[in-house]
Amino acid sequence: MIDPHGELAGFWQERHLCTLTTIRRDGTPHVVPVGATLDAEAGIIRVITSGDSAKARRVRAAGQSGMPAAICQVDGRRWSTIEGVVVVRDDADSVRDAEKRYEQRYRTPRVNPKRVVLEITISRTLGTVR
Protein backbone atom coordinates (compact mmCIF):
# COMPACT_ATOMS: atom_id res chain seq x y z
CA MET A 1 0.00 0.00 0.00
CA ILE A 2 2.79 2.46 0.88
CA ASP A 3 5.93 2.42 -1.26
CA PRO A 4 8.77 1.93 1.27
CA HIS A 5 10.99 4.14 -0.92
CA GLY A 6 8.39 6.77 -1.82
CA GLU A 7 7.80 10.30 -0.58
CA LEU A 8 5.14 9.29 1.92
CA ALA A 9 7.43 6.76 3.62
CA GLY A 10 10.20 9.35 3.63
CA PHE A 11 7.93 11.88 5.32
CA TRP A 12 7.13 9.31 8.03
CA GLN A 13 10.86 8.79 8.66
CA GLU A 14 11.46 12.47 9.43
CA ARG A 15 11.28 13.45 13.09
CA HIS A 16 7.77 14.83 13.63
CA LEU A 17 5.32 14.46 16.48
CA CYS A 18 1.98 12.99 15.53
CA THR A 19 -1.56 12.88 16.84
CA LEU A 20 -3.45 9.66 17.42
CA THR A 21 -7.24 9.73 17.28
CA THR A 22 -9.39 6.98 18.77
CA ILE A 23 -13.08 7.02 19.59
CA ARG A 24 -14.49 7.12 23.10
CA ARG A 25 -17.51 5.03 24.10
CA ASP A 26 -19.75 8.08 23.68
CA GLY A 27 -18.59 8.44 20.06
CA THR A 28 -16.43 11.53 20.59
CA PRO A 29 -12.84 11.64 19.35
CA HIS A 30 -9.92 11.34 21.75
CA VAL A 31 -6.83 13.00 20.22
CA VAL A 32 -3.40 12.79 21.86
CA PRO A 33 0.16 13.63 20.81
CA VAL A 34 2.36 10.59 20.18
CA GLY A 35 5.53 9.45 18.50
CA ALA A 36 4.84 6.93 15.75
CA THR A 37 6.81 4.74 13.40
CA LEU A 38 5.84 3.50 9.96
CA ASP A 39 6.63 -0.01 8.77
CA ALA A 40 5.65 0.50 5.12
CA GLU A 41 6.50 -3.04 4.05
CA ALA A 42 4.21 -4.54 6.70
CA GLY A 43 1.54 -1.82 6.31
CA ILE A 44 1.68 -0.96 10.01
CA ILE A 45 2.10 2.15 12.17
CA ARG A 46 3.34 1.58 15.73
CA VAL A 47 2.94 3.76 18.82
CA ILE A 48 4.58 2.87 22.13
CA THR A 49 2.71 3.82 25.29
CA SER A 50 2.10 2.76 28.84
CA GLY A 51 -0.36 -0.10 29.18
CA ASP A 52 -2.35 1.90 31.71
CA SER A 53 -2.77 4.96 29.47
CA ALA A 54 -6.30 5.96 28.46
CA LYS A 55 -5.57 5.19 24.79
CA ALA A 56 -4.23 1.71 25.57
CA ARG A 57 -7.16 0.91 27.87
CA ARG A 58 -9.63 2.10 25.23
CA VAL A 59 -8.06 0.01 22.47
CA ARG A 60 -7.75 -3.06 24.71
CA ALA A 61 -11.45 -2.74 25.64
CA ALA A 62 -12.32 -2.93 21.93
CA GLY A 63 -11.05 -6.52 21.91
CA GLN A 64 -8.95 -8.51 19.47
CA SER A 65 -10.71 -7.07 16.44
CA GLY A 66 -9.46 -3.60 17.44
CA MET A 67 -11.04 -0.23 16.79
CA PRO A 68 -10.80 2.43 14.07
CA ALA A 69 -8.00 4.95 14.51
CA ALA A 70 -6.25 7.74 12.64
CA ILE A 71 -2.74 9.04 13.04
CA CYS A 72 -1.64 12.36 11.58
CA GLN A 73 1.51 14.42 11.26
CA VAL A 74 1.99 17.93 9.91
CA ASP A 75 5.01 19.91 8.77
CA GLY A 76 3.97 23.26 7.33
CA ARG A 77 1.95 22.54 4.19
CA ARG A 78 2.99 18.90 4.19
CA TRP A 79 0.69 16.56 6.05
CA SER A 80 -0.32 12.94 6.19
CA THR A 81 -3.14 11.07 7.89
CA ILE A 82 -3.12 7.30 8.02
CA GLU A 83 -6.26 5.43 8.98
CA GLY A 84 -6.73 1.83 10.03
CA VAL A 85 -7.62 -0.53 12.82
CA VAL A 86 -5.60 -0.39 16.03
CA VAL A 87 -4.90 -3.25 18.44
CA VAL A 88 -2.71 -3.62 21.52
CA ARG A 89 0.41 -5.79 21.41
CA ASP A 90 1.99 -6.51 24.77
CA ASP A 91 4.32 -9.43 24.06
CA ALA A 92 8.01 -8.76 24.72
CA ASP A 93 9.10 -9.20 21.07
CA SER A 94 6.55 -6.67 19.78
CA VAL A 95 7.47 -4.15 22.46
CA ARG A 96 11.23 -4.52 21.82
CA ASP A 97 10.74 -4.15 18.07
CA ALA A 98 8.60 -1.03 18.51
CA GLU A 99 11.12 0.48 20.94
CA LYS A 100 13.94 -0.02 18.42
CA ARG A 101 11.88 1.62 15.67
CA TYR A 102 11.02 4.52 17.99
CA GLU A 103 14.70 4.97 18.87
CA GLN A 104 15.61 5.17 15.16
CA ARG A 105 13.05 7.91 14.49
CA TYR A 106 13.14 9.87 17.74
CA ARG A 107 15.41 8.86 20.63
CA THR A 108 15.88 6.04 23.13
CA PRO A 109 12.56 5.69 24.97
CA ARG A 110 12.59 5.92 28.74
CA VAL A 111 12.32 2.65 30.65
CA ASN A 112 8.69 1.64 31.18
CA PRO A 113 7.90 -1.90 32.38
CA LYS A 114 4.20 -1.27 31.60
CA ARG A 115 4.93 -0.45 27.93
CA VAL A 116 2.68 -1.82 25.17
CA VAL A 117 2.46 -1.19 21.45
CA LEU A 118 -0.55 0.23 19.66
CA GLU A 119 -0.36 -1.30 16.22
CA ILE A 120 -2.41 0.23 13.42
CA THR A 121 -2.96 -1.85 10.30
CA ILE A 122 -3.15 0.70 7.50
CA SER A 123 -6.33 0.84 5.42
CA ARG A 124 -6.15 4.36 3.95
CA THR A 125 -3.69 7.20 3.50
CA LEU A 126 -4.44 10.88 2.91
CA GLY A 127 -2.27 13.93 2.59
CA THR A 128 0.18 16.05 0.66
CA VAL A 129 3.86 15.42 1.33
CA ARG A 130 5.43 17.44 -1.51
From TrEMBL:
Keyword annotations of the record: Oxidoreductase
Q: Which InterPro entries match?
A: F420-binding_dom_put, F420H2_bilvrd_red/Heme_oxyg, Pyridox_Oxase_N, Split_barrel_FMN-bd
The domain of life is Bacteria
Q: Which Gene3D superfamilies does this chain map to?
A: Electron Transport, Fmn-binding Protein, Chain A
Q: Ranges for the Pyridoxamine 5'-phosphate oxidase N-terminal domain?
A: 7-125
* Database matches in SUPFAM superfamilies: FMN-binding split barrel
GO molecular function terms attached to this record: coenzyme F420 binding; oxidoreductase activity, acting on the CH-CH group of donors
Q: Which NCBIfam families match?
A: Rv1155_F420
The entry's protein name is Pyridoxamine 5'-phosphate oxidase N-terminal domain-containing protein
Organism whose genome encodes this protein: Kibdelosporangium phytohabitans
List the top taxonomic levels of the source.
Bacteria, Bacillati, Actinomycetota, Actinomycetes, Pseudonocardiales
